[in-house]
Amino acid sequence: MDVPATFNFARWRLVGVVSMPLYLVWTHIFIGLRPEHFVFTIAFMLLFGLNKKTAWFAYLVLPFLLVGIGYENLRLIMDWRPEIHVADLYNTELALFGINTATGPVIPPLFFKTHNHPILDFITGLTYLLYLAETFIFGIYLVFKAPKKLAFITWGFFLLNLVGWITWIVWPAAPPWYVDKYGMGPADLAAPGDPAGAARFDALFGINLFHSFYARNGNVFGAMPSLHCAYPTLVALVAWPMGKKLRIFTILFAGTMYFSAMYLQHHYALDVIAGITYAITVFAGMLALERWRATADAGLPEAASATAEGS
């Protein structure tokens, strides 16, 4: 892993030494400290402080840490949200993607509530569990195989979350399982998280994994867009030119995630489409920025030469 000559090790070592303890103080005051906060703080302080290579690695993966910090602090601004969208999103889904049944049309997520299979429960549950792992593992792969592409995953991941969070605050929306459980009336802001169809995965293995995870969910009304679907879409876009095997695997994983989001009743088809659209937009924006910077850098010698001749 080559470290660019322009990387200022002393500056980033200072950033690690100063910012990480401040992060602990902030978390203690506004969130409440847990053991993992100390683990991440110590790890990043060590990475930034040991040597230039470890500091460069910490710099590369810093967006992942920023996303974790940002997500945890979302609860501080949840009270700023306007009215939760419940019936309008459900009705739009029903009109566009309703599935005809003997008892009338139903939305795809609720169709799968009564049309499921243990094999699909296993595949979709496992896929849903790996939504972050795929992104992180692919990011680590890029560190060693294609470091120039890493920013598309790290900062792309950061930007995806940022625009997703903004949407959750500006246009909060209830997921399909919420409508099924509580109806389409005014949203109950005190409603706890629910594993919905993922409970079948827990039942398969006699565990409490999804139940415990969603019991800690601080944002029930973040259905639109589906970041579960946005992440693997971004990975597939970055992996596309990197070989046939990687391309096929990432596309299959993304497609399975799209299906899983609806099959497990956590997202509407509209949420899935929105997540895909967000990922494509972020990727296209970063690609345009990269090309602009390459063009600008290529023009620097000519500009410098022209300036020298003019003087």
Provide an overview of this structure.
Helix 6 packs across helix 13, helix 7 (131-145) runs parallel beside helix 12 and helix 12 (227-239) runs antiparallel to helix 13 (244-263). With 311 residues, the protein is mainly α. The protein folds into 2 domains: 1-79; 81-310, no CATH class. Mean pLDDT is 91; it is low at 302-311. It is 71% helix and 0% strand.
Using only C-alpha atoms, the radius of gyration works out to: 22 Å
Would you identify the regions where 5 or more consecutive residues have pLDDT less than 50?
302-311
The first-to-last residue Cα distance is 41 Å
Put simply, the count of helices is 14
- The H-and-E topology, N to C, reads as HHHHHHHHHHHHHH
Largest sheet properties:
none
Strand content: under 5%
Give the number of DSSP strands: 0
Look at the helices and sheets and give the structural class.
mainly alpha
Q: State the shape.
A: globular
- Total number of domains: 2
Mean pLDDT level:
91
Essential attributes:
mainly alpha; globular; 14 helices; 0% strand
Task: Give the helices and strands, then pairings.
Elements: H1 9-30, H2 35-50, H3 52-73, H4 87-97, H5 108-114, H6 118-129, H7 131-145, H8 150-170, H9 176-182, H10 199-205, H11 209-215, H12 227-239, H13 244-263, H14 269-310
Helix pairs in contact: 1-2, 1-3, 2-3, 3-8, 6-13, 7-8, 7-12, 8-12, 8-14, 12-13, 12-14
